[in-house]
Amino acid sequence: MTSEKVTALNRLPFLVSKSLIIFSILFVCSPVFSGNRFFRVLFNEDANHKATIIWDQYQCGGVHLYLDSVDHGQDIDKYPHVFSKFKKKKHKGLLNYSLELDSLKAGTIYYFIVKDDEGLSRRFYFETTPKEPDSKLLLIAGGDSRTQRKQRQEANLLVSKLKPHAILFAGDFTASDIPHQWEMWFEDWELTIGKDGRITPLVVARGNHEHSNGVMQKLFNVPNSKVAFNVEMGDHLLNVIALNTESKKKSQTKFLSRTLNDHECYDWQIPMYHRPVRPHVDYKPEGVDQYNYWVPQFEKSKNTKLVIESDAHTCKRTWPILKCDKQADGNCAEGFVRDDAKGIVYIGEGCWGAPARWPNDPKPWTRDKEQVYSFKYIFVAPNKIEVRTVLYMLSNEVKEVDPENRFQLPENLKFWTPENGPLIEIKK
Hints:
The chain is an alpha+beta fold and 428 residues long. The protein has helices spanning 149-162, 179-189, 213-220, 249-262, 288-300, and strands spanning 36-42, 51-57, 64-68, 81-83, 87-91, 94-101, 109-116, 119-120, 124-127, 137-142, 166-169, 202-204, 229-233, 238-242, 268-272, 306-308, 315-318, 321-323, 336-338, 345-348, 366-370, 374-380, 384-391, 424-427. The strands form six sheets. Strands 12-11-10-22-23-24 form a six-stranded mixed beta sheet, with no helix packed on it. Strands 3, 4, 7, 8 and 9 form a five-stranded antiparallel beta sheet that branches. The longest helix is centred in the middle third of the chain and has 14 residues, at 149-162.
């Protein structure tokens, strides 16, 4: 069936209801009073006005989703927007229901609940990105969650406390892309849901451990079969570009060039993808095609100053760098040279729970490196980007952030503090 779309909802109260699921660091109970689980929200195009809700509906019959910008808790009769037609895709042992929402209001909280023949789900909510001219965004970025469950559960619980506007996840969700691993991954991902039902939307890219583009379409509803797309956020604030390193790089160059050109009036553009151009672990192959086809496009774009990579399971960040010719520039190393005025910062390389590796292949233009489990904690404002690296051990000791004050650094949050300091500032 085709999905239904919802028109703008204009009311914005923020009411916190009682938690219906008890969270721990090691386990999340699926609701036993309805036939559904594994709820997630995706940003796949316009995070201000569109979102997709997806879940596993394991008991069919009488499925309805109730939605409003006012919190009615479990009282479904008070929700004015009711949906009964969903996209349905069986994949990896899950029956994925998805609902594409359109014409949403920017910077607005939307509450929803699902009813089926078994009963009611928990009441969840998500928020669209703000669109005021001076708005900022809090993003969490990372990838490679595939094997170490304890570490990825720590990271997931921390997400629920930090209240980011979105998570940029650059691939390698599971180890072997098989059903029981995906079930465990989604079970762990429920730890990112707040005690009050808050779901942080995802922007995803495909990794090499996702064995096909189809898995990204069926589990995350990405908008095209090539798994190369862009997501707009804020009032011309940010364009996030998800690229696919598991498909031909040259074939994505036209899309990359077009979206960079179409968003040249935005304050920032951030490409994200899985395999690094220059990995910092020596046995990982160099990204030759990315270097030849993508990097020149990044460098033509005046508002592309940060790139997010994954795959090598190590922690690195570079100084601002540009492509170079070794014959013309004696400081050129592995095809790049440091350029603080015009260069691009590359961060990564995916440490969300896959085995952390020592970065044994540093470059002269590497700013800092370490073997740590971590993700990136990014503030995006019209005039600058701030990048920190969060070490997510002891996440149960971190206090929950008030969404109204999410840009204040939380108490007990542990940051990586390498030789060159914990903070990268990228200014316009």
